Amino acid sequence: MDTDEQQTRQRQPHGIGDLLDIAAERALPVVAGIPDTALTAPTPCADYDVKALVNHVFQVVVEFRKLAAKQDSDFAVTRDRVGEGDDWRARFASAAQELVAAWSAPGAEDGTSGAMNMPARLVGAMALLDLTVHAWDLARATGQPYEAPPQVVGALAEAVAELAPTARAMGVFGEPVPAGADASPFDRLLAATGRHPQQR
User: Tell me, what's the pLDDT at 170?
Assistant: First the structure.
């Protein structure tokens, strides 16, 4: 492959399925590394301890798989999937791979999806955002390392800018916080969602 072709491929956007696969590769070790003793620990999300946040992300993974297939989702009640058995980490890993497969299927990014009839790619980006940012939340809460994939961060910047006004009005994002002139792209993304990038 010559240099021009390489540059062209690098400029082409990844599909949501590809990006979710990359994000899951970084998120799954964090979930797998959560000890049972940390399930009641606080997280950077004030409304969630570790167990509640895992259950939330689990719900996102399951329900956004339905949205990829243009099916109805149900976020009314968050099920306690962590409390349903000792293999919840393995079940989460399987569900995450099913999410990747769903958004990699032909037509997943076409048209609209969800109750708000949003563009399907933007809906997929919402799942990508949750899997990425909440992996950081869980890593911070349980003392684990986490580094967001640059491709994912780049793809999310535009989505966060588009989603932010509605997300803040709904209380999903906090008010943006200063990220600092030398902040990394991921730190700026975290700050846009109301998180303090250096929060421990």
Answer: 63
